[in-house]
Amino acid sequence: MGACPTHVPWHDKGAGKTCLKATRGKCPHYCFCVIDDDDELGLRYLRVPTLTTFNLRFYRNGHSVLARALSHEGIDHLPQDNAFSRIAEVARAQELADAFSPGLLHRRPDHYAQQFCPVFDVFGQVYHWSLRQVEHSTDPMFCGEQILVPLYGAISRQAVLAANAGRVSGFLGKKVTPLSAQEIGSRLSTRIGGLCTKHYTGVAGVKVYDKFSRVLRVETTVDDVSFFKHHRKVEHTDGEPARKLASMKKTIYSLIDLREILLGCNQRYLAFLSSLDDPSAGERDLQRLGQPRVGTSPSVKGLNFFDADEQTLLRTLQRGEINNPAASRRVSKPTTTARVSAPRGGELHPERFNIHGWRCADLFKCLSVAPSAMSRQLKRFRVLGAIKKVGHTYRYYLTRPGRAAIAAACSLTRFSIVPAMASTQ
Residue 425: which residues within 8 A CB-CB, separation 6 or more? Predict the structure, then answer.
């Protein structure tokens, strides 16, 4: 059983005429699932109602079409559900996906309507196929779940908080005006497969979710394609054609222009996701630097980011809060790459650590550590890969993994662990 448009007899007492009036009703539907070995469309199905006007619905999935095309050309691929976890020639696969013709989509539904709808020949009419719901996805593939899972877990929650009404409308190529009557919102939902972040404006929306922890799917959906506008030929009532900005037609031949519009929505949303903070790299470095190095010469234990002494040292290296007037004066001199002025009191900022480095003598001014203990700590940090030494000098720098791991550790201890411990007391 399902809802469908239909007609009922109606008598107009004023005009004294009886006619058919359009209305909505419910009736049984037959769903025919079809797959032909010699066909390009792959698996699809036709939904046939049992009430006039026999409004047929034809569904097909572009991933099934692409899988057929890849198999026909002998390109190695691994389909999973309605996604691909591996494609040997990604560029060629994209060319095949872009080459899909709406003409093929027009011929096949006519054939199935004649085969499965028994009144097709009785009325002596042909069907006019229009677009009802369209989804267009962009699927970046990742090497493994150890990369995508922490990345998506972080950006999914940030995306809901960072995407305001203006940004959501911008994803879909719209502007927020005082006359906008459509509801704009975002939501984060939990499904069996994982998290799904969706932003919507009226009948259109863009969402992101992961497939099998290998594919990050960004998908734009629209239930009424006239929501989008583009420059096309418009015929006025007086018969004069003109090219102007108008709502998109619902004919299936609008798929060519609609594909470019929906792809632009996906790309704008991907650009938005790339601007969010990604703590996954820092978390991976944090885990790696916390593991001991066994078998090296000498063997060293991993960093303990929750030890008070080590945490103070790491935060000092991250902030660079060291009083070193001599170093500040040296850095403040003009160079070929940067001009940095010395602050009051000679405080050395993190930017100067990255430019000039630091010495053990700089650390002794902020930390009460014996020289022998400091030397052992620095050697341990070098073995772990958190710092590196400048050749033929006594200066050190934080490495990229070291900076990322320290930032992640500070974020965890400041915003997650400490508040959680305080709330339990």
Answer: none
Q: Which residue ranges make up each domain of the chain?
A: 1-128, 130-278, 281-424
116-124, Cβ contacts within 8 angstroms, sequence gap of 24 or more: 116/30, 116/32, 116/46, 116/48, 117/48, 117/54, 117/56, 119/54
Planar angle of CA 345, 314, 304, nearest 5 degrees = 160
Residue that the structure tokens 């630091």 belong to: 358
Q: Please give the helix or strand (H or E) that residue 72 lies within, else none.
A: helix 62-72
130-278 maps to CATH 3.30.530: yes
Q: Three-class SS of residue 98? A: helix
pLDDT digits (tens, 9 = 90+) for 375-419: 888 888 888 888 888 877 878 888 878 877 777 777 666 544 444
Token pair 């200066």 in the structure block, residue: 395
The H-or-E segment that residue 329 falls in is helix 325-331
Q: Measured between alpha carbons, how far is 337 from 335 in angstroms, rounded to an integer?
A: 5
Cα separation, 177 vs 166, in Å, equals 10
54-84: pLDDT as tens digits: 889 998 888 888 988 898 899 999 988 889 9
Sign of CA dihedral 367, 370, 375, 377: negative
Report how far residue 343's alpha carbon sits from residue 29's, in angstroms, rounded to the nearest whole number: 77
Return the bridge partners of 235, or none. 241
| DSSP element (H, E) containing 233 | strand 229-235
